[in-house]
Amino acid sequence: MAFDLNLSQDQRLIVEAAAALLAESFPLGRLREARQDDLAPLCAFGAFSLSASEEEGGSGFTIVEEALVHTLLGRHLLTTRSLATTVAAAVARSVGEGALATAIASLGRPVCAGLPGAQGILVLDPVPNAAVLVFGDRQLSLVETGAVREQPGLGHSVAVALAGGTGSTLASTDDPARLAAADLLVSCHLLGVAEGARDLAVAYAAMRRQFGKPIGAFQAVKHHAADMAIRAEMLSAQRDMAAIALADRRPDAAFQVAALRRLAPPVALANARACIQLHGGIGFSAEADAHHFVKHAHALSRLGEAASLLDLPSPMAPRQPAAERT
Amino acid sequence: MQLTTTPEDETFRTAARAWLAANVPGERPPREGKAAADFTRAWLRRCQQGGWAGIAWPRQYGGQGLPPQRILIWYEEYVRARAPSVLDGSFVALNHAGPTLIACGSEDQKAFHLPKILSGDALWCQGFSEPDAGSDLASLRTQGVVDGDHLVVNGQKIWSSYSDHADYQELLIRTEPGSRHHKGLSWVICDMRAPGITVRPIRNLAGVSHFAEVFYDDVRIPLSSVVGPLHDGWRVAMTTLGFERKTAAMGLQFELGVRIEDLIALARPRAGTALAERLADLRAEAAALRAMTYRTVLREPVTPSDGSMMRLYFAELAQRIFAAAMDVLGPEALLDGAWSHDYLEAYSETIAGGTAEIQRNIIAERVLGLPRE
């Protein structure tokens, strides 16, 4: 079918396989221990080169499948290195650095996400010998930073370090299509945060009992849960629209991705916040998993900025200007 | 997941665009009364003459029998050409009564009523809500007593939109004596000219009367006008909800997509940074509403109630967009104009067809599986 938003057979298989792998290797409970995610199982899965062609050592899928898988990574609150690795490999490929791309996707060259800050580059989830993918102002640059100094951050699930200075640039791009692909994947992780927070909150509301019944039976709780569901549904529908538009190089691709990237941070944060609220006291504790969603939402939201939506033509523009102005 | 149109789809789009450009009335439809009803009838007639009647209806009943992607294309072209709002006096007939007759009606009922709906000769209104049966619709009390081959109806309905000039009403009444809740109801076709019917228009907060109270005083309705089995009206009423949520919603939701574009065009010369940010948010949200509309039509739902998320999102987004319009207008917002009028009308969005509160309960229970209260 040419016009169909159901997952294809291939897409269903890859989503199911990724979900099984993540449940096995990256349960949320792992975040209670202060250790960094080991991305090796995802590398074995091919998660960092899904949309690279087979000649390039990838799986030959499109950015649509990549978006679906990265949404699942977001749900499991995978380190931002998982996102930076996929994007950095794609950037390297796009500028003809095939060997570097292969090294990145195979984790031979680790990559961390970085943000330009007032005191230097802020490196997220630092690991030794990593290159840093800096999400700049409509610019992606993969740089060597040399030594970094770990800093106190919001918590161990989003570790931060400061890089003293930048060394050589390994690859860099301001190609709008490449930036849009990065914006799409950042948004997918944020969508995953929104979905994961919704599911955690709903499971808790169905289980936790007060006044002799599950708190999820009370309308005040139900209405928060319903809003979480609507926000996640809205964002995932836009994820599909943006991913397909980008994969097909449709004329509205930039618009769809900019809309998605604009919507994603507030949606992720609102769901993460509601997840803490619905957990009550335990939600405020570091022992529950709810707080990690808030911290990931903030970290992901900082990775680049949406293109200016009002400067892009909308696919729903009327054919004639309005006759009445007021 | 794919959104690839065929060359035939694009030919269809071109034809729809050309016909709409040549036939969409230039003037804004009258807001109420006979003039509004006449405008609606004339527009339906024109659509039928052009070969565009019943876009989402099956071919055997006079519709176009179009596949989902063509219906999406039609409504996108329809709203972008500024064709009359789909939420007018034809809404119940085309999106509710007609599809209900197609699904549950007798051959005689279909043969008599369906052609009249498509030609604009019969406008319909809804007779579901009552003064004491709003969100709790199943507690309705308007009664139909079997008397020979007729039902004798007594009671009162309310919020019956366009009933002042409608020809027929889809009427949900209690026909089984002593029955309670959703049992013992019947879905009947009520001729609005039958003796014993009194329509009292209600002025809404936007200053117009497009809905009304309807009183029934020994109104005789032939048993042959019962749709589906007698006493099985709840099931009949639920049959067409899916149609309403999908196809009817499409036109309305795309319409909102055009309104935000108009608002941005209106605001551009005068918007400061804060307003521009707000409009960009609304534009992104309207894009997501369109994406939800596509998803609802082109994907198997995870639960039968998935559409309720889109319905509520639409309602609240409409209110946000019109509220922003009032701020774009500034002092002119106090004058009666298209934007200020539609702003006031939009207060109904989170009430009509299921309040936002009921919708949230439905989402929590039927989509998320939380326990009933």
CATH C-level of the domain at 176-311 in chain A: Mainly Alpha
Shape of chain A: globular
Total count of helical runs of at least 4 residues of chain B: 11
CATH C-level label of the largest domain in chain B: Mainly Alpha
Rounded mean pLDDT score of chain A: 95
The chain-level mean pLDDT of chain B equals 95
Global morphology of chain B: globular
Number of domains as seen in the coordinates of chain B: 3
User: Biggest interface, and residues per chain?
Assistant: A-B, 62 and 74 residues
Compute the number of strand runs of chain A. Answer: 10
- Tell me about the biggest sheet of chain A? 7 strands, mixed
Structural class by SSE content of chain A:
alpha+beta
Q: What's the multimeric state?
A: heterodimer
Strand element count of chain B: 9
Q: Output the CATH topology of the largest domain in chain B.
A: Butyryl-CoA Dehydrogenase, subunit A, domain 3
- The fold-level CATH name of the domain at 176-311 in chain A is Butyryl-CoA Dehydrogenase, subunit A, domain 3
Structural features, described:
The complex is a heterodimer of chains A (326) and B (373). Chain A is built from nine helices and ten strands. Chain A has 326 residues and is an alpha+beta fold. Chain A has a domain at 176-311: Butyryl-CoA Dehydrogenase, subunit A, domain 3. In chain A, the strands form two sheets. A seven-stranded mixed beta sheet of chain A has the order 6-7-3-2-4-5-8. In chain A, strands 9-10 form a two-stranded antiparallel ribbon. In chain A, helix 6 runs antiparallel to helix 7. Chain B has three domains: 7-119, Butyryl-Coa Dehydrogenase, subunit A, domain 1, CATH 1.10.540.10; 124-232, Butyryl-CoA Dehydrogenase, subunit A, domain 2 (Beta Barrel), CATH 2.40.110.10; 240-367, Up-down Bundle (Butyryl-CoA Dehydrogenase, subunit A, domain 3), CATH 1.20.140.10. Chain B has eleven helices and nine strands. Chain B has a four-stranded mixed beta sheet with strand order 2-5-6-9. The longest helix of chain B has 27 residues, at 241-267. Chain B is globular. The model of chain B has no long low-confidence stretch (mean pLDDT 95). At the A-B interface, strand 1, helix 6, strand 10, helix 7 and helix 8 of A face strand 1, helix 1, helix 3, helix 7 and helix 8 of B.
